[in-house]
Design goal:
With 120 residues, this protein is α+β, with helices and mostly antiparallel strands. It has three helices and five strands. It has a five-stranded mixed beta sheet. β3 and β4 form a beta hairpin. The protein is globular.
Length: 120
């Protein structure tokens, strides 16, 4: 089982309410994430205790440059973001490196999978 982990608890509400349905990861991650995969969406520190929020399906996985991101992808990454500059600032905080709009990112679109209890 794979996981999409989010380090900041800031995202928990946006994930739970469905306002965040995209994650933008630095580099080409298509060897790790493929459309149709079922993953756990988790929150917590790297190498630390994490909490599973829900199960999701990866609807689409695309590789592009930051400057090719659509306004909708940017907003679905973070409902408060409006521009590629917002995405660059976020990626610099996460990856602690010099990042520009020409850098490659992987855009992962995901949807929650409803889980129903089995009949007893």
């Amino acid at each position: 089982m794979y996981a999409l982990n989010f380090y900041s608890e800031y995202y928990e509400e946006a994930l739970r309410t469905g306002r965040k349905t995209v994650t933008i990861r630095l580099g080409d991650k298509t060897d790790k994430y493929k459309a149709g995969m079922i993953v756990w969406v988790t929150i917590g520190p790297r190498f630390g205790k994490r909490q599973k929020l829900f199960t999701a399906i990866l609807d689409r996985v695309e590789v592009k440059t930051i400057d090719a991101l659509s306004p909708r992808e940017i907003q679905k990454e973070n409902p408060e973001f409006r521009s590629v500059d917002d995405v660059v600032a976020l990626l610099r905080r996460i990856y602690s490196s010099d990042i520009s709009v020409e850098d490659t990112v992987t855009v992962v679109h995901f949807s929650p999978v409803e889980e129903y209890p089995l009949p007893t």
